[in-house]
């Protein structure tokens, strides 16, 4: 018999040992074709070395995203994918970047920051719209706080669709970017 006379619904919940043991990943990680991923990353590394003489440096601007696209971009460097081993890295300063990644629809408050970041990246540079929102405005199109897709503010070289795009799609997009820039007449 318990001394607490309150009905069960109004008693504060205590963490149970069973609950603590069972906490953790709510679902298993998605299946990843590691061989394909490694091959894509290796081709990106080789393409960057041919085009730039070194590995690729990425600068990200979140122009107003829900952060879903950032999670996938950050996954490129987590221990699960670990793609920094192929030289792919994010840099803090746009002065050190080759590629500007833009996520989210461009909000009015982020317009100037996006323009200034793009202008600060030395040539040759590429701009990639990551995810449906940056590519088309996505589900925020027409919203009072949004200007539109990334190309409404900066010149976009490539759009990678998806909501959000997975790391494999991100790598395939970067590879397509490098390959297209190696063709005659491109930057
Ligand atoms: S594309 Fe999807 S995941 Fe990416 S910012 Fe838009 S709503 Fe979020």
Which descriptors would you attach to this protein?
single chain; binds iron/sulfur cluster; 6 helices; 34% helix; two-stranded antiparallel ribbon; 187 residues; alpha/beta; 5-stranded parallel beta sheet
Proportion in helices: 25-40%
Evaluate the radius of gyration. 21 Å
**Tally of DSSP β-strands:** 7
**N-to-C SSE series?**
HHEHEEEHEHEEH
Structure summary:
This protein has helices at 17-22, 34-52, 68-75, 111-120, 131-136, 167-181; strands at 57-62, 89-90, 99-103, 106-107, 126-130, 146-148, 158-160. It is an alpha/beta fold.
What does this structure look like?
- By secondary structure, the chain is an alpha/beta fold.
- The chain is 34% helix and 14% strand.
- It is built from six helices and seven strands.
- The protein has helices spanning 17-22, 34-52, 68-75, 111-120, 131-136, 167-181, and strands at residues 57-62, 89-90, 99-103, 106-107, 126-130, 146-148, 158-160.
- The strands form two sheets. Strands 2-1-3-5-7 form a five-stranded parallel sheet, with helices on both faces. Strands 4-6 form a two-stranded antiparallel ribbon.
- Helix 3 links the parallel strand 1 (57-62) and strand 2 (89-90).
- Helix 2 runs parallel beside helix 6.
- The longest helix has 19 residues, at 34-52.
- It starts with 16 loop residues before the first helix and ends in a 6-residue tail after the last helix.
- 35% of the residues are buried.
- The model has no long low-confidence stretch (mean pLDDT 85).
- Iron/sulfur cluster binds at residues 65-66, 68-69, 103-104, 131-133, 138, 163-164.
- Iron/sulfur cluster is lined by residues 65-66, 68-69, 103-104, 131-133, 138, 163-164.
